[in-house]
């Protein structure tokens, strides 16, 4: 049975003729497939996060402004990973001109639902995830932006930084959806923990990944004698960044993650790609598709620079002294 959101979007699509070249005069339609947000209309906006800021501002700069020259439709699985296939079919059924998502997992569901609608995705290891034939020539209906690191590598590097910043930390929680632990995302982190001689404790989030799942995960940490928290670079954790910081602050636990947005709202450190630049690059791909290019012929862009952000205000609140060598490596220090 088709959902109400899918029906509404399909009716909207029928109300405006499909593009038959640029001459039809109708507005192009962009569908954004989010993973976790419970309020897509509020959470997928220019002011919601750095990546959406980059996305919408660059679209506007390139001549595509929501409500004037572009229709944007927002979809969310609301934290239920098992809903990806059905939601992907609903999104594809509305026949947007291009679909955007921010993780390989929903992109896989979307590609299974349509082999023709262009899909632009950002995430790590797009070729490894089976979404494209190669970086230089994707060969299918998916292209986009990928971190120039294997799945889980950025989190592994974050674990190393956390160990350097807080040498006394030996019991580190890995906060991640269940699917991450035994996947290509979790294995490199476990290997890094073994190499560093620390105990990595799986603190896994039940499906649906919503606030109650985070409360349950943090409630286990005192008995597990957790010293610090490695926040996995999952879309679920990104969307719940403010809530994660609130729980970590209440538990007086330092965190590191790959999203600068979390450090900006009170996480101790972040180490990852520039998500605003990521959003701008994604916008460029969207516009190229809308102007007639095919994803199969559009090389995947690699982002190979990682930035370290340290929140000294949080460090002071936790009574931590960050070693000068770590501070010297920071791209930005929040005071």
From TrEMBL:
InterPro entries: ABC_transpt-TYRBP-like. The keyword Amino-acid biosynthesis does not apply. Keywords: Signal. Pfam families: ABC_sub_bind (PF04392). Residues 1-22 form the signal peptide. The keyword Hydrolase does not apply. Coiled coil: none annotated. This is ABC transporter substrate-binding protein. It comes from Vineibacter terrae.
């Amino acid at each position: 049975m088709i959902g109400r959101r899918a029906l509404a979007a399909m009716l909207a699509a029928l109300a405006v003729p499909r593009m038959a070249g640029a001459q039809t005069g109708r507005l192009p339609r962009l569908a954004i497939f989010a993973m976790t947000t419970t309020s897509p209309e509020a959470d997928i906006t220019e002011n919601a996060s750095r990546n959406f800021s980059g996305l919408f501002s660059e679209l506007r700069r390139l001549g595509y402004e929501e409500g004037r020259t572009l229709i944007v439709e927002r979809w969310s699985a609301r934290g239920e990973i098992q809903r990806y296939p059905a939601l992907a079919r609903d999104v594809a059924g509305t026949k947007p001109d291009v679909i955007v998502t921010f993780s390989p997992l929903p992109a896989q569901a979307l590609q299974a639902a349509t082999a023709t609608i262009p899909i632009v995705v950002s995430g790590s290891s797009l070729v490894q995830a089976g979404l494209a034939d190669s970086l230089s020539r994707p060969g299918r209906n998916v292209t986009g932006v990928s971190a120039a690191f294997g799945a889980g590598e950025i989190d592994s590097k974050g674990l190393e930084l956390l160990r350097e910043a807080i040498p006394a930390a030996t019991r580190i929680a890995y906060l991640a959806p269940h699917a991450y632990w035994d996947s290509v995302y979790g294995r490199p982190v476990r290997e890094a923990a073994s190499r560093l001689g620390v105990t990595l404790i799986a603190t896994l989030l039940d499906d649906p990944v919503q606030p109650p799942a985070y409360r349950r995960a943090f409630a286990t940490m005192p008995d597990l004698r957790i010293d610090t928290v490695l926040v996995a670079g999952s879309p679920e954790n990104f969307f719940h960044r403010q809530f994660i910081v609130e729980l970590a602050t209440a538990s007086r636990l330092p965190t590191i993650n790959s999203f600068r947005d979390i450090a900006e709202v009170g996480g101790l450190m972040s180490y990852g790609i520039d998500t605003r630049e990521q959003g701008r690059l994604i916008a460029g791909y969207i516009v190229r598709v809308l102007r007639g290019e095919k994803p199969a012929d559009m090389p995947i862009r690699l982002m190979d620079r990682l930035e370290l952000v340290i929140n000294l205000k949080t460090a002071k609140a936790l009574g931590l002294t960050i070693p000068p060598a770590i501070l010297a490596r920071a791209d930005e220090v929040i005071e």
